[in-house]
């Protein structure tokens, strides 16, 4: 019951805060692309939360944990959060003042990419029961090297990259995409630090790095 209440509070707060960041700068509730984005964002989150609550409540508890322990990661998370908030506000202002134009075709494509990102994210959650929101090595943790983890070492961050690129375009703002873009570089910094932690603390991770060469994008990096 405690986990259920915590999950509901987190969901409702996220819904309220996201709506405020979008509709207040837009100056209107008739911001259709914002409603589209919120549907694409929160319906999958709700479904994923229900599934985890029933099938794997411990993983859900770890996904709700937000407090980073690694000093370097605290800065990355804080800056990523700032850029995410800024991109939402810029998207709302862009809608109000018509700073840029994004065609319906691009919005549809971005919506598909966003859903693909969520699908990949869901598959990563299914494959890796140790997937915490913070960088840590858990008791009894072992290397996951099957499925998507047999292709790249950090499939979750590839999924997050798709989300970062798709969200501003679903909202219909090239300027928001510009603001969001540095988040990709922050993911790179997060991955490098995370791999140092896993290399030092997780048994078998060095061998896994030798077997699976690419961190996030096959044949690229």
Keywords:
221 residues; mainly alpha
Helix and strand sequence:
HHHHHHHHH
| Global outline | globular
Mean pLDDT: 87
Strand pairing plus helix content: what structural class?
mainly alpha
Number of helices: 9
Total strand segments: 0
Q: List low-pLDDT spans.
A: none
Largest sheet: none
- End-to-end span in angstroms? 42 Å
Strand content: under 5%
Helix content range: over 70%
Report the C-alpha radius of gyration, rounded. Answer: 18 Å
Short description:
By secondary structure, the chain is an all-alpha fold.
What does this protein structure show overall?
By secondary structure, this protein is mostly helical. 71% of the residues lie in helices and 0% in strands. It is built from nine helices and no strands. The protein has helices at residues 2-26, 32-55, 57-64, 71-97, 104-127, 155-170, 174-180, 182-201, 205-211. α4 runs antiparallel to α7 (174-180) and α5 (104-127) runs antiparallel to α6 (155-170). The chain is globular and about 55 Å long. The N and C termini lie far apart (42 Å). The model has no long low-confidence stretch (mean pLDDT 87).
Helix-strand blueprint:
Elements: H1 2-26, H2 32-55, H3 57-64, H4 71-97, H5 104-127, H6 155-170, H7 174-180, H8 182-201, H9 205-211
Helix pairs in contact: 1-2, 1-3, 1-4, 2-3, 2-5, 4-7, 4-8, 5-6, 6-7
